[in-house]
Amino acid sequence: MFVNKEYKDNFILLTFNTGTKYNVFNVKFMTELLDTLSEIEKEKKYRFIVFKGENGNFGSGADIRELNRASIDREFASSFFNYMKDLYLKLINIDKITIAQVEGLAYGASLELLLVMDFVIASKSAKFAAPGGKIGVFPPVLLTLGPYIIGLNNVKRLAMLGEEITAEEAEKIGLITKATDEIDKETANLIYKMSFMAPSSLMLMKRHIMKYLDRDLSEVFKSLIIQVGGDESKEGINAFLAKTKPSWLVNLSKLQ
């Protein structure tokens, strides 16, 4: 099992461990999390879900080996990215308040997962990046939802420059709610404050805040499925696995 569910006094804790150094998005993780969220939707007693990666990291994004398979197998690419799209849509539309706890890295698809959470509490040492363009795979959720959440220029910086940012910077641009060394305490404080809200009021607020976020996801994932099967994505992914440089980097030194 990659996803573990634990019932607390006033929230459900979901921890995930994909058995790798950094937690990754692969088909097994995505299908398990989708199934778990479908189960949780039936739990009317609980209004809050807390998400946490084990092994000291939230996640490093899509599993590079499954991306490699997707680059040569169109059917697998369609399945892989549709599971990913369905997971983001599930989190946007689920009738619960979602809170992510971030330690270590939140890269790529894992960073994009934060964009569909209601609140994000991160350790001060956490790092955030969307470097997919370096291997020829663009970040679909960052491009579609990011301008609405963190602003157009911040999306350009993360997606088009591939820069890593600190938790302090992530808080400033609105990617995360709070950077703190007391993640559990801050999470408890958030839940305590929201507990003063009438349950129906809280859910309606979430519904109307989030209702615009899923409007372009289907189209952008169609583009991603096409892109990942292109020559540049194949080359970029293979270069990453082989620890070599793709062709667009070979002459980079001449530009400096």
Q: What about the largest sheet?
A: 6 strands, mixed
Strand content: 5-15%
**Structural domains: how many:** 1
Radius of gyration: 18 Å
Could you give the order of the helices and strands? Answer: EEHEHHEEHEEHHEHEHHHHH
Task: Provide the residue-averaged pLDDT.
Answer: 94
**Uncertain ranges:** none
Share of residues in helices: 40-55%
Gross morphology: globular
Look at the structure and give the CATH class. Answer: Alpha Beta
CATH superfamily placement: 2-enoyl-CoA Hydratase, Chain A, domain 1
User: In order across it, which strands form the biggest sheet?
Assistant: 1-2-3-4-6-9
Helix/strand-derived class? alpha/beta
CATH topology: 2-enoyl-CoA Hydratase, Chain A, domain 1
Query: What is the CATH architecture term?
Result: Alpha-Beta Complex
Number of strands: 9
Number of helical runs? 12
The rounded distance between the terminal residues' Cα atoms is 48 Å
Pfam families: ECH_1
Protein name: Methylglutaconyl-CoA hydratase
Family: Belongs to the enoyl-CoA hydratase/isomerase family.
Q: What descriptors fit this protein?
A:
globular, 256 residues, single chain, 12 helices, 50% helix, 9 strands, 14% strand, 2-enoyl-CoA Hydratase, Chain A, domain 1
